[in-house]
Amino acid sequence: MVVLNKIYTKTGDDGETALGNGARVAKHSMRVTAYGTTDELNSVVGLARLHAEGVTDTRLSLIQNDLFDLGADLCRPDMEKDADAEYPPLRIVSSQVDRLEAEIDEMNSGLKPLRSFILPGGSALSAYLHQCRTVARRAERLTVELATMESVNPAAVKYLNRLSDWFFVAARVANDNGTADVLWVPGANR
């Protein structure tokens, strides 16, 4: 259980922060950058939810919770020590990836195939979902980079990969099932 009764602790004033296992690292470390970007993504999802309703809002709520799970996963290195931990660390699991895939398939089933790349925009919700997509891709790139240096849960990388696809398809749905997508016209302004 999390208890936050004091918001500032002054323990980060020297440029370091604590990971989930208690280890102190520089605030600019790749691990902190990766999970910090998932936190940024969660904020953008919150903005998208201002324009979402019904099933889309419900699904975005689940994604926000998943992103906290992902942050908890990424802030806890040493996966090989999970079994020995006093409290088992929270890790992204394959069922979370599977849920995204099922939702992508369901949303995509009502869309016509793309014959052009699309530009971010159309409705406000679609524009925010495209912003979510690009921040998710950045979080994925940073997490993949982290995985070249330290242990990272492979399901976390898969989750981020599917999540950006989820945002892309959801953005098309938000644009009147793709009929209001803004199409790219190559070389239109030459």
Automatic annotation (TrEMBL):
Keywords: ATP-binding, Cobalamin biosynthesis, Cytoplasm, Nucleotide-binding, Transferase. Pathway: Cofactor biosynthesis; adenosylcobalamin biosynthesis; adenosylcobalamin from cob(II)yrinate a,c-diamide: step 2/7. Signal peptide: none annotated. The keyword Transferase applies. GO terms for molecular function: ATP binding; corrinoid adenosyltransferase activity. The keyword Nucleotide-binding applies. Its main location: cytoplasm. It catalyses: 2 cob(II)yrinate a,c diamide + reduced [electron-transfer flavoprotein] + 2 ATP = 2 adenosylcob(III)yrinate a,c-diamide + 2 triphosphate + oxidized [electron-transfer flavoprotein] + 3 H(+); 2 cob(II)alamin + reduced [electron-transfer flavoprotein] + 2 ATP = 2 adenosylcob(III)alamin + 2 triphosphate + oxidized [electron-transfer flavoprotein] + 3 H(+). GO terms for biological process: cobalamin biosynthetic process. Residues 7-174 form the Cobalamin adenosyltransferase-like domain. Its EC number is 2.5.1.17. GO terms for cellular component: cytoplasm. InterPro entries: CblAdoTrfase-like, CblAdoTrfase-like_sf, PduO-typ. It is found in: Cytoplasm. Belongs to the Cob(I)alamin adenosyltransferase family. This is Corrinoid adenosyltransferase. It comes from Marivita geojedonensis. The lineage of its organism: Bacteria, Pseudomonadati, Pseudomonadota, Alphaproteobacteria, Rhodobacterales.
